[in-house]
Every structure is written in C-alpha cells, then in structure tokens.
Specification:
With about 210 residues, the chain is of the alpha+beta class. The chain has two helices and 14 strands. The radius of gyration is 45 Å and the shape is rod-shaped. Bound molecules: zinc ion (2 copies). One zinc ion (ZN) binds next to loops.
Amino acid sequence: MLKNGIKIAENVFDGKKSARSLGHNFSGEPTWQWQENHQKALAIFACQNEGCQETLTIDAEVNIMYDDATCRKEGSITYLAKVELNGKIYRAEFNEVIAKKPHEYPEPIWCWSKDLKSAIAIFECDNCGNQVEIEAKITQEAIEDGKMRYTVHVTFEGIDYENSIDARYNKKFNGTTAFIFATIAFTGIIMGAIIVFKIRSSIPYQK
Ligand SMILES: [Zn+2]
Ligand SMILES: [Zn+2]
C-alpha cells in the first residue's frame, strides 16, 4: 500500500490465524433465525472486524406468551427470544395473531306480538351477550276446530329456527269485541223500537 509515495507495511490478514490473534468482535446486533414454528431461535453474530467472516451462533431462550382470542377481540401469541453475550442482552420478538372466535348463539328468545301477526327472534351470544334481532316469517294454518297454529321461522347463520303457538282463532280480540258490539247493537235496536213504540202510542188519536 502506498501513501505519499512511502510504502507502508500492510497488516496481512491470513484468514483464521490472523483473526484469532486479533480477537473477534461480536458486539453488533445478531441476525435471528426462528425455528420449529417459533419455538426455538438462533442468534447469529457476525464478527465486526473488517474482512472477517467468522460468525458465532447462540441458542436463544424462547418465552411464549398467550393472549386468548374471544368473540370480541383477536388473540395473540408472542414469542420472545433472548440471548446474552459478553454481558449484553439481545432480544427478538415474533407475534402471531389469533383470529377472533365466532359468537355462540343458543336457541333464540321469541317475542310475539299480542295479535300473533308478527314475531322477532332474539339471539344472544353465550359468551359476550351480543344480541341480534331477526324479524320472523309467519305462517298460519287451521289445525282443529276453532284453533289456529301460528308458526314463525328465521334462518340465522345458516341454521333454521322455528317456533309455534296454537291459539283459538281470534278468541282474545275479535270474538269478544264482536260479541260486545253485537250486544250493544241489539240492545240499541230494541231500545229504539221501544222508544218509537212509546212515542207513537203517546200521540193522541185524531180523526
Ligand atoms: Zn473476526
Ligand atoms: Zn360473543
């Protein structure tokens, strides 16, 4: 090597011998190699000395932390690798996301309208209480004398749910109301007839 025309003795680097005599320098950050689904890791330190290809591989201690997924949030697995070299700690981390769990809905609660003309199915998640309401389709069929079967039907998350109520046809509302109105109307006619008769009979007969 020439510097200002003066030949300077070069520090000849003859591979391992020189490297060993100089002493390696593994003070830099290692390269990490995760293995066996992140259950293990290797920290690979490269010698920082110029021209030296030497590496030092150390088995890391791996700690695994779990955060379970629920139907409200994703979970995670955190892999923490750690090695110590010359009194210094080196760490690496790898995170794995666990997908949210689906809600778990048992049979729904059915809410019928009083007139049995509409109904909703309320699904409530067993784990978090999340609610989903679905309007049901209603069908009705006469099943026996004076009785009607009302059937409601919903499909939720690919599953069919059904519920039915048997009721005497229009008994609660229309039957009673019709009877009351009929009674009032009949009474009214009778009363009217009596009044008309009384008025007529009270008018004196004139020739
Ligand atoms: Zn070296
Ligand atoms: Zn849930």
